[in-house]
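Consortium newsletter contribution from the modelling node. Members have asked for a concrete example of what our holo predictions look like. Here is one, prepared for the phosphoric acid mono(formamide)ester complex that several groups have been discussing at recent meetings.
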Amino acid sequence: MPRHFLKLTDFGRDELLGILELARDLKARQARGEPHRLLEGKTLAMLFEKSSTRTRVSFEVGMFQLGGHALFLSPRDTQIGRGEPVRDTARVLSRYVDAIMVRTYGQDVLEELARWSSVPVINGLTDLLHPCQVMADLLTVGERRGSLDGLRVAWIGDGNNMAHSWINAARVLGFGLRLACPEGYDPDGGVLAAARDADVEVGRDPEWAARGAHVVTTDVWASMGQEEEQEARRRAFAGYTVDARIMAAADPSAVFLHCLPAHRGEEVTEEVLEGPRSAVWDEAENRLHVQKAILVHLVRGEG
Ligand code: CP
Ligand code: NVA
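And here is the predicted structure:
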């Protein structure tokens, strides 16, 4: 059975911290211009059923820097879009490539692919989770704070895939997480129930969530696949914009994170996104370094 990267709770604390350490090392080697062709001759298949800028480019560039190769596959021009079963796709791709990254709708599709794949499968975002992004976020927080010890994180907005991966990270790594979500947009009940022993709380008030936090983070109000709900969500999320007032409630050292793409004037103001406490560009860069570490960890079994 290959090791997959489907959700953060499949990993222990030491393993996740080991991947972050490897990411820091690979980032330093990259900065020194030092070759680190740890996946020479290896190929990654990247299956995208939803749009992407960061995930696609960072995985593709990452494989190149590691001495390997990445293939972009979309349903528009593969048999997947014409209904070839996931389990057949998984078995065929496994005969050609050394790892598969998938961005799709259902977590069940990802899990089915992993069940039938004989090479590692990586979650590049589902409706339920976005674990690679939260690993990049944790790398960024570690760089800014020096460590993750005693960390307090505030999530403001939709109880979506990003929120779920933050909850999972809080469970595994043991940091404090407060989520402020409008009524009707709480995180998934199953994800929350599994975190009942973790330091995770859900409320309605964004200032309550932000109070004393070292990280304030948010995401779009309508995720991919929810475009038709855009207007209703805009109304429901009034008062949940991360602005200077919410940032003022946080710890003086707090950073602002956003996985991007951002909708300025909705979930975050221009002032906060472009302000001195925003770490969003480092966060986007760190997708590259953390995913190289995930690939090396899974494909070579190192961490
Ligand atoms: N944050 C993120 O996953 O961005 P993309 O949708 O551009 O990949
Ligand atoms: N929650 C967003 C994240 C995009 C990277 C979405 O699923 O569209």
